Amino acid sequence: MGTYRQFQTSARHEQEGIELDLGEAGIFRIARAGGANKRYQKRLEALLKPYRRAIQTETMSNEKAQELLAQVYAETVILGWDNVTGPDDEPLEFNVENCTKLLIDLPDLFRTIRETAENAALYRETILEEDAGNSETSSSTS
Q1: The three-state (H, E, C) secondary structure of 29-95, written as one string
Q2: Domain coordinates of the chain in residue numbers?
């Protein structure tokens, strides 16, 4: 496999997202945190700008950093969800406020989503082509 085939990512999928199926926890549509998702970097820079001094002097609390990152993810990385429920087990509407709260309240979920969004391999053309081929094969044999 050549260099480009091995490392080239899909700009479309980096922006429009891939599906992260977490079983009973729900299905999340996740854009890439970086790459062709320029909205992510721009929003991150804009939100962090007022905190530049605190970041440089390492005086920003971890809680504040997590809150800001959760907001950036809710606005630019998590594009939607299905079958996500709130603490009362009722369906949770997807919006920036609910998404930010969910990420802050459930740090292990946030870590899973961050790992997915930062994993360039999941947005590579060859992986996406293989997945599409497997879906077509399984749907045509059903």
Answers
A1: EECCCCCCCHHHHHHHHHHHHHHHHHHHCCCCCHHHHHHHHHHHHHHHCEEEEECCECCCCCECCCC
A2: 3-136
How many angstroms separate the CA atoms of 140 and 126, rounded?
A: 21
Residue 132 has pLDDT above 80, yes or no: no
DSSP state of 9: B
Dump pLDDT digits (tens) for 31-66.
Answer: 999 999 999 999 999 999 999 999 999 999 999 999
Would you tell me how many other CB atoms lie within 10 Å of the CB of residue 99?
Answer: 25
Helix (H) or strand (E) holding 17: none
- The amino acid at 137: T
Q: φ, ψ for residue 81 (rounded to 5)?
A: -155, 160
Contact status, residue 135 vs residue 21, Cβ threshold 8 Å: no
> Nearest to residue 74, comparing CAs of 46, 49, 102, 93?
102
d(CA 62, CA 136): 44
Judge if pTM exceeds 0.90.
no
